[in-house]
Amino acid sequence: MKTVLSVLAGVILSFALAVSAFAQNENDTVGIRQWSKPDGTQVTLEAKRNNANVDTGELRAFENAKVADTSLAPQLAKNPKLIASESYVSQHPELQHFLGQYPKAREDIQRNPGNFLVPVKGSTWNASIVGKGSTPQSD
Fold this sequence. Notes:
Layout: H1 2-26, E1 29-36, E2 42-48, H2 56-68, H3 72-78, H4 86-90, H5 93-101, H6 105-111, E3 125-129, E4 133-136
Antiparallel strand pairs: 1-2, 3-4
Helix pairs in contact: 2-5
C-alpha cells in the first residue's frame, strides 16, 4: 500500500510541476495594445516578459513605486530611457527610493522594459526578447 501511495504522490507532484511550467510559458505576454495610424496602418505592440535573471523583489518594488506615482508607468512606457535622466528621476521621489534600493534597475528597465512596463500608444519599444533586450518599434 505504501508503494502505491508513493508512486501516486510522485505522479501527482510531476503533473503539478509540468502544469506550472506550462502556465509560465503561456503567460509570457503581459500586455497588447493596438491602434490605427492616420494612414490606416494597423500597429500592434506586445510586451513579453523576459524572465532570465529577474529579481521578483525588484519587480514588486517597482510595482509599488508605479502605484504610489501613477505618472511613472505611462511616461516610462513611452520612453524607458527617461529613467537614465537625473532630472526626471529627481521629480519622482518614489522612483528615487526604488533606484536607491535597486541601482541596477536603471539599466534593467532600459534594456528590458517588458519586464517592468506594458507598452502604450507612442512606446518606442514593443517586446522584451530573452537575451536580446527590447525590440524597437518599426513604422
